[in-house]
Amino acid sequence: MTPKTSPADAPDPAHCRPAGVDDATVEAVGKLTEALETIERARGHLYSFHQLTGGADFELGEAADLLEKAGHAEIARRLRTELVGRNVLPGRWTFQIVEEYDEDYYERVRAEERSVRDELLQGRRHVYESELKESRRTRGAEGHEARP
After folding, report:
1. Are 3 and 138 in contact (CB under 8 A)?
2. Is-contact 125 14, C-beta < 8 A?
3. Which intervals of the chain are annotated as region Disordered (predicted)?
C-alpha cells in the first residue's frame, strides 16, 4: 500500500526554519533549547526536594510527638530543638532555595533562550526538532503525520 500524501502533510510553519538561517544556527539554538529543557527537569527535581523535605519535617514532628507519648520526653525535646523546623542550608528553608534558583538562574536562562530564538529564528520554537521529525517520519503513513 502506497502512503497517501496531502498538502497539509507538512510541518507547522511556526516550526519551520526562517529563510536564510543556516544549519549551524538551527543546531546551536536547538542545543540551547535542549539545555533549557534539562534545566526545567532540574527545577522539577528541586520542587520535589522542596516538597519531600517539607513533608519529612512534619514527620520528624510526628515522631517527636510519638516519642513523648511513649515516655521519651527528653529525646522528643531534642528532636524538636535540633531537627524540626531546621534550615536545610544556612538561613534557608527549601522554599527560599527554590525562590533563589528561580530568580537568579532559571528565569535568566529562560529569558536568554527566548531572546536567542527571537534574534536568530524569528522566535520560532523547536525548529531543530521539527527538522529532525521530518527527516525520520514516513510521509503519508498512519502515525507519521506532520501535525495533528
Report:
1. yes
2. yes
3. 1-20
For the entire predicted model, the pTM comes to 0.83
Contact between residue 35 and residue 116 where contact means Cβ atoms under 8 Å apart:
no
Per-residue model confidence as pLDDT tens digits over 19-77:
999 999 999 999 999 999 999 999 999 999 999 999 999 999 999 999 999 999 999 99
25 contact partners, CB below 8 Å, separation of at least 6: 120, 121
Residue 92 zone, left/alpha/beta (φ > 0; ψ -120 to 50; rest): beta
Q: How far apart are the first and last CA of the chain?
A: 22
Q: CA torsion, points 38, 40, 41, 42, in degrees to nearest 10?
A: 90
The neighbouring-strand residues paired with 92 are 89
Domain boundaries, given as residue ranges, for the chain: 24-132
Cα–Cα distance for residue pair 7/13, rounded to 1 Å: 13
Burial of 109 (0-12, 13-18, 19+ CB in 10 A): middle
| SS3 call for 92 | strand
